[in-house]
Amino acid sequence: MGAISGQQYIDRINQLNPEIWADGKRISGLLSEHPLFKGLILSKAALYDLQHNPKIKDELTFPSPISGDAVGLSFLAPKTKEDLLKRRKMIEHWATHTHGIMGRSPDYLNTVLMSFASSADYLKGKEKSFPENLIRLYETAREKDLTFTHTFITPQVNRSQLHLENGESPIAARVIAENEQGIVIKGARLLATQGGLTDEVLVFSIGKFIFNEEEAFAFSIPSNTKGLKFICRDSFIGGESDFDHPLSSSYEEMDSIVVFDNVLVPWERVFFYNNGDVAEEFLEKCSFHAFAKHQVLIRQIVKTEFILGLTELLIKTINVREYQHIQEKMSEIIIGLETLRALLEKSENHASLDEWGNMRPDVLPLKVAGNLFSKIYPRFIEIMQLIGASGMITLPTEQSFHSPIRKDLDQYLQSATKPAYDRVKIFRLAWDLSMSAFGTRQTQYERYFFGDPIRLSSDLYLSYPVNEYVSKVNHFLKL
Amino acid sequence: MGAISGQQYIDRINQLNPEIWADGKRISGLLSEHPLFKGLILSKAALYDLQHNPKIKDELTFPSPISGDAVGLSFLAPKTKEDLLKRRKMIEHWATHTHGIMGRSPDYLNTVLMSFASSADYLKGKEKSFPENLIRLYETAREKDLTFTHTFITPQVNRSQLHLENGESPIAARVIAENEQGIVIKGARLLATQGGLTDEVLVFSIGKFIFNEEEAFAFSIPSNTKGLKFICRDSFIGGESDFDHPLSSSYEEMDSIVVFDNVLVPWERVFFYNNGDVAEEFLEKCSFHAFAKHQVLIRQIVKTEFILGLTELLIKTINVREYQHIQEKMSEIIIGLETLRALLEKSENHASLDEWGNMRPDVLPLKVAGNLFSKIYPRFIEIMQLIGASGMITLPTEQSFHSPIRKDLDQYLQSATKPAYDRVKIFRLAWDLSMSAFGTRQTQYERYFFGDPIRLSSDLYLSYPVNEYVSKVNHFLKL
Amino acid sequence: MGAISGQQYIDRINQLNPEIWADGKRISGLLSEHPLFKGLILSKAALYDLQHNPKIKDELTFPSPISGDAVGLSFLAPKTKEDLLKRRKMIEHWATHTHGIMGRSPDYLNTVLMSFASSADYLKGKEKSFPENLIRLYETAREKDLTFTHTFITPQVNRSQLHLENGESPIAARVIAENEQGIVIKGARLLATQGGLTDEVLVFSIGKFIFNEEEAFAFSIPSNTKGLKFICRDSFIGGESDFDHPLSSSYEEMDSIVVFDNVLVPWERVFFYNNGDVAEEFLEKCSFHAFAKHQVLIRQIVKTEFILGLTELLIKTINVREYQHIQEKMSEIIIGLETLRALLEKSENHASLDEWGNMRPDVLPLKVAGNLFSKIYPRFIEIMQLIGASGMITLPTEQSFHSPIRKDLDQYLQSATKPAYDRVKIFRLAWDLSMSAFGTRQTQYERYFFGDPIRLSSDLYLSYPVNEYVSKVNHFLKL
Amino acid sequence: MGAISGQQYIDRINQLNPEIWADGKRISGLLSEHPLFKGLILSKAALYDLQHNPKIKDELTFPSPISGDAVGLSFLAPKTKEDLLKRRKMIEHWATHTHGIMGRSPDYLNTVLMSFASSADYLKGKEKSFPENLIRLYETAREKDLTFTHTFITPQVNRSQLHLENGESPIAARVIAENEQGIVIKGARLLATQGGLTDEVLVFSIGKFIFNEEEAFAFSIPSNTKGLKFICRDSFIGGESDFDHPLSSSYEEMDSIVVFDNVLVPWERVFFYNNGDVAEEFLEKCSFHAFAKHQVLIRQIVKTEFILGLTELLIKTINVREYQHIQEKMSEIIIGLETLRALLEKSENHASLDEWGNMRPDVLPLKVAGNLFSKIYPRFIEIMQLIGASGMITLPTEQSFHSPIRKDLDQYLQSATKPAYDRVKIFRLAWDLSMSAFGTRQTQYERYFFGDPIRLSSDLYLSYPVNEYVSKVNHFLKL
After folding, report:
1. pTM of the model
2. pLDDT of D172-189, one tens digit each?
3. CB–CB of B331 and C371 under 8 A?
4. Per CATH, the architecture of C287-476 is what?
5. CATH 2.40.110.10 in chain B, residues?
6. D441 is in an annotated binding site
7. In chain B, residues 392-431 whose CB comes closer than 8 Å to chain A
8. Choosing a second label site near D51 at 20 to 30 A (CA), which of A190, A473, C58, D461?
9. What NCBIfam families does UniProt report for this protein, alphabetically (chains A, B, C, D) (predicted)?
């Protein structure tokens, strides 16, 4: 089978019929035709079609070691630097097609799964751990081009440092029973982006948040598993017009809470369970951070390029390139972009084989980039607002241009260099990226992509080899 | 007649039938029942009703010097510091009722009109100027409690310093003819908030932007004047539910472009025309800056209180009060709030009689506050996002709580201190203020309230008496 | 006796002969002629002489309630708002004379002593407390115009939250014995500015830092008390030329470590001892924070005026007023200055009588100002560096102007508006305030005046009445 | 001859006897024994000795293509990426030896000269240009290991955009005559660091600042040329003790104004003159920016490592590693360091041959790094001050430790982890880098290394290929 087309993806999703709730109603009918999901599904379908575009097919697929079929290159566990650069190219293609806007594009999740599976040997011989299940799932996913979402985080009930959940009924999902068929999960997980819109849900526990062994597990199950519910947040689609809502009409990915209502996870789907040590250590040792951060950084670079281009387009439209404060703001974006690129390149140049033979990019520059982006992305958005100024607000809709007042709009909304229609189109895009509910969710999403920025800062410092620099100072001071 | 009630306001607006275009359609039917406007109109009606609330009626009205009727206190031209403090109290009442969210509340526009009219003597004897018309309009407005919008700014075609409009057909509204009945205006003006939803439109030219004498005029005309069109931007109402959209459902004020399609402004409505010198100097000399900035600062203080309360509510809900970085962020809001209050008080303490006998607040502390708020408001909003974190995103709708999944929500979205329903309600309010299209428009609006912040900074410096401090340094240096 | 003259001050200090160590040597000879101290002592003497300047004598003194002699107004415990405004005026005189540069000017310390003494009733009936000693000291100080330093802080050995000192030999000064004559103190205190250069040292314990009851005490002793040693830090005097070092030549106050080498504090000098509760509570309840912060804020305003004047002088000298980024930076200083003034005025307007009948300024605006200044002062200094640019560096000395190369300097260092000599003089002043060792110590001093800024932020938030704002939001949300 | 030793350098400098003025006196005697210069000269001598250190000699020299002697590798015009990496290694050695503190280390100036000479072909056939002189000077310098300073900037008389110098007597150095022997220069140049302490002065005009052709020239002359004067700024040496002044005692480089008092520059020393077009274009086309920025960035990375090590040492000394705000500040330094490294690596990876066959590092990442460092270096210094807090101030001198009060210091200044002596030594180093007059000059120097940061931002933006990103957005919008 191998790499699927957009239509194959749509057909498979439409047959799934998972339990999704939105605005108080259970979703029914074809997902690809539902107003809440069709924009995203079409955008993802276009991504899958890229795999069959003769011009770039070879850059997006590789021959399956099992079947020889062309399978998605995001599944490739790189063994050489060339492999890594192939991965970069492939990720750039996916990201460019969506301008870096789609966070949970298939290549991201395939990368996550690959990173876990290519480190599966870690699980060998560990208690309550089943590496073979993880490898089998990965191979199945690769051969069938399965789509995934993941959920790592438990509900945000109480963020105090001293809090311990101790209610009788679980809030955070946990193993409440095990039997011959598998383990039984009850409780919830937070923020599965595209939850319910993928073949499978990958569920992993992240060690540091675990206080109960029962919350320490990893598995993958189909989205339509019995007892599995996806509860959507409010939609951020502004409308169907791609003039009015150029981004939200196509890229609203939806986030949902995942409820496990006594969900049976069959044994062959379990990677490990009830093992806090493994949950904590696996995430540290496996290549997840290296490969996931590599994919994310490439996407963020493409997104930054998009922001740079769009901001420059605003500048040209209203002719403000001459102002020094505009120049300084633009230089901030350029510095950000070039910095991200340099960090990416360094992570690739310094890639090295891990203990399981995979060519991991150096994770340090990627961590630095992750820290940085959580701060500079919101600033880029602010810069866009500051350059667009009041022009970001008084924007009529597409329908206005198809009405008797068109000639008024043409006359009064023209800009220095653009007709009114184009000017409004450009500013609406800037608005949708920086000021719509869709856009602000993007900001929050990038800010928290890898967790609380405050904690990321601490982690960076506490894991950094500062002592070698201390030694030099001590040497200078003869201490 | 005097101060009107909410119902009187609604009735009058409903009879107006101005030419408003939204989303390509001419608005028809009762404005107060139109989905785009009813929330705002009801909110404004509630404000007018305050004037008849026996508990505070005396703080919101004063006896008309003409009729003796109770008229709106926002029309009062203060002659003493007591008058000024009465005005503060009155503005606080209006602002508190809307949490500082409504920018163009009636007291703001009444204040603007009062500030112009109480400086009308300036226009005496000036060419093409008619102070008596301004005074008459003011008195009519006061006695009938007319509602206004205003428009000061010309379209943003080209923001280069060197740009001069030289097309044949006007873009910026200008006088294209004068005849026995009055002057004829053609062209457009930008950003009339609540445009079309008020009895009258106050049109003033602001001197510095004028390159043509024909663009230098001031008048007021009814919203339903022939040839006058209001073209709405896209609406930022998220929906009717005040659980889901607690702010936009009630406070979306709409902004519109005002088109003058050969509009005849009768002579008795003209305050001045074709006089660039007057346009420039009147704004400098009249009490507009002092009184308008006084009203705005009071509203912004109330809004900051609302932000402080709401942010603290987020903190309590998820129990993060113990974190030092949270404490530091909250101290930023507190410092902002206390600073604004101190500046307000100083402007009142240092009020003085102007040449026309009006007790003007000192404008310097108000300018400082205006500069400051354009920078700290966006930071407050950012702080709210940083404290709410990912919890700002995954928010189900009200309907979800009235559906079979309610018990899941109750269990999985509960917070440290609140049931799920309350927690979601609180976070939706924070989202609506900081991340919805309505909220981001608020941010942009506060940022640009008195114009480009960069220019405000320059103005503050260039008008500040720095030389007295230079002298002291010269003295110290014996120069 | 009453308010002393500069000469009286000098004579008294010269007779004192305290044990001061600087650069490894015990200081001997007349302090007023010692290169390390003479600049400061002359500057202080000039301040004392102000009290006899007929033009302002009445604004600097008041008749002693005991002797009727004119005594320093900084000793006045204000009973009315008029008293408070008199204090403001007096502080302005002192601060203006030294441009706000001298942090431990006599009015500061007199204010501190007055604030303790006017709250002495608090100590009545408390264990191991002797309010009568405090009042007696205050009266003596007032009648004799004694000069003071104070020391509140214990040595910075270990700043971890969990640290407890447990060595055998005390580091932080503590009571190691008591006998018929008094209590015996051994250990050290940190950072007595002007330590050894004043009649007395006021020693207070600040509650929150106390882990041992033996560290909880308060007293005042003469600087030449047996066993009392002052160990100076390195001097920041750049040289004697007031062209080259206009500030450090006159205002270097020196900071010293105070060592108590079994110092006997006579009973009549002890205010309280071995009482942690009193140490903690007295500081909270007494008027120290209100009056000290009032004095400090007035000084900081004068200093900000000096910075504003000097920065403008740089701008005029090199003719950069036209640049928007320069204008924006200057507006930052102006906003800071006006904000501080407004906060000061608010604290005075809202002054109220405390339980002991003293008219205390409202402490909240003063706390806000203190928080703010610790952040904006370093920014002001940075602005000065950014405006002065490379011109801050290449500055020849005064001697260069009295040498054969004078004509080269005159030609090549002239500025747009100033001869070379004046230009260098102006830039050297800017350098001495912002870049010399003296200047950077000033920055650090203002940054930490009232303690760690991070802790100040937390304190502000944790003591602020946020709940009333939460209530309004709850009301709006019907929670 | 080739690479010299420290002693050879000292001997040569001592024979030079240039006209240097400091503090109003003409310097006489051996420069290497003069208090103002001996620290620097010894530090430079140690750098030259590195070239003879058998362990690293091969990394610091290469065989002269003329003589075969080992000559300094900083003179190597790289032809391959391997050459470029050799240059990196060599620069790291020099920088590490001085912790990145010495800005005008010989490798910097050799690099500058190499970059000009290796682009000398540009001058071929240009009017009033003599490329052969430039090449000859370079070869002489390489073979004799000559030391240089340079001066590019004209005096800062008036920074207004509209200023034109029009006095009769020149301020900026210019050609006032030419004759058979050469050209005659009168006027001044600014800020020659180490001016008078080098064999030669390299004088270049930078195009954009030129309004008169007579100011457009380039040449090199010996420091003891007749009529050439160096006027020193005030010295920033704090003293001779390397405990008290660990940096300024060794690394104070001095800056001086260079006066040309009718200096005759022989024709064989002139590279070009009276040619504004060449002055402007040569700097753009030659490899100066690429190679100079490459050297500078490597040095700045080494300096950042030193800052990181020193700051960590402060943290360890007072035991504050546990505080989140400390962790966040340290992460800022780490992010800065890693970013600079990544940009350096990228510039090397993307190096390419220029039209004259030299392997130039890619200048864009270097420009980005230059922009960045001018902002982050001052922040690093601020972080050091914030972490050191009041402990940066109360620092006794070395002599204090060799005196009777040593035991007091030992007891009361001990830290959590260090004896008092070491603690004071560490803090004095932090003080000397961040707060002494030497340290603040370093800050200003790094901030302005490549010119006004505001202008650097504009240059970066205005030279950046933004249009390719605009095209992508236009494509997305179908414009």
Report:
1. 0.97
2. 999 999 999 999 999 999
3. yes
4. Up-down Bundle (1.20)
5. 6-283
6. no
7. 392-405, 408-409, 411-416
8. A473
9. HpaB-1
